Amino acid sequence: MGQERIGDIADFISRYLSYMLGAGVHTSRVVRNSKRIGEALGVDVCVHTSQKTAMLTVRDSSGTIDTRVVDIPAFPISFEWNADLSALSWAAYDRKMSLEEIRSRFDSMVSKPKINPFFVLFMVSLANASFCRLFGGGLWAMMIVFTSTMVGFYTRQHLTKCKVNHYIVFIVSAFVASLCASSALSLGIDSAEIVLATSVLYLVPGVPLINGVIDITDGHIQIGISRLVNAFLLIVCIAIGLSATLIMVKNSLL
Amino acid sequence: MIAVDILSDGFFAAIAAMGFGSISDPPLRAFPYIALLAAIGHATRYCLMNFLGVDIATASLVAAFIIGTGSVWCGKKVFCPMTVLYIPALLPMIPGTYAYKTVFSLIMFLQNISSPTQGSEYLQAMIFNGAVSFSVIFMLAVGATFPVFLLRERANSMTRGSRFI
Predict the structure, then answer these.
(1) Which among A80, A126, A196 has CB closest to B27?
(2) Cα of A252 to nearest chain B Cα, Å
(3) What is the ipTM of this complex?
(4) pLDDT tens, B28-55?
(5) Those residues with Cβ within 8 angstroms of residue A216's Cβ, 6 or more apart along the chain or in another chain
(6) How many CB atoms are closer than 10 A to CB B50?
(7) Which of A105, A149, A202, B148 has the most C-beta neighbours closer than 10 Å?
(8) Is A241 near chain B, with CB under 8 Å?
(9) Across the interface, which of A114, A135, A250 has its CB nearest the CB of B25?
(10) Do A94 and B161 touch (CB under 8 A)?
């Protein structure tokens, strides 16, 4: 295998793993899948990952080596990429696909359209309203949570589209959602506390939290801690946004 | 009446899981299984807490373990990695009211810092609620991740032979 060929493989695998890490896949899966694709193409792959960058070395049996260092792009979390790109690595391995074939499949997978944002907005609002019900809220409480989540989540979608810093997005969205939810106090609803508590829960960063724990238990402790710190900062941002509302309405809550 | 309570708990947990899951762009084929796992997990926790008097952290651990194990079985059917199914399914079990009370108590503690009795009451409430929230979230993550260690071979080849690519 020539140097150019090894370079091509390194380019593709580095792109593959940066997309997976960027889309919120836990580290051991990314490493495993990258090695599997490497094996399918007849090369050995070694990967080092951190929160913002990844590094990989590709080596063939004759000892030709190439190394790449890539930035990890900040994609929105995508379980679809997680499932499809993992399946691609198995398909490459089982069917002994060529690099060109794997690359064209990869390109078509990552260019697939995402779920419609308005559908997501509706689903998230419905989810938060159901969550309110699980905490013991009544019908009116559910309706207020539905509306507040809709306003809050729309704010989040809009600010993210405008490329505002994600910490600010979380603070503002939590504030907007909880402020809307505080209308439960003026409407005299019994479970106003539950309404306020539930209104910001659509922001909870579940994926980095669980990925952090998985990474740590899998031995990728550094990136696991980075993910947990990241999730913790986002939770602090939610608390700040909620606090701003609570300070304004605390007297009615006591 | 008890059956209706359990079913409605599972039903609302299923809707919550599908909604929260949709933020993370799961494949459409995964939605029914996310809903099923969330409903079973949340209903199990509800039963453990309300009928057997188990505390919230242990009940969450058991429910998360069931969801994690279930996701190994369901994942193979729809060729999705376990995390795609169990992360959304765990989200309805996040201890929202405890987390809220932690933040509220912190604010009230800071507002009453000059009054020793009230201040310490709020501080106590903050630690109490914070400890519950932290333990439950930790137990959820550990409970769902544990089946991966038991069924590693199967868990690592869930997407093999996928017909959806």
Answers:
(1) A80
(2) 13
(3) 0.91
(4) 999 999 999 999 999 999 999 999 999 9
(5) A224, A225, A228
(6) 14
(7) A149
(8) no
(9) A114
(10) yes
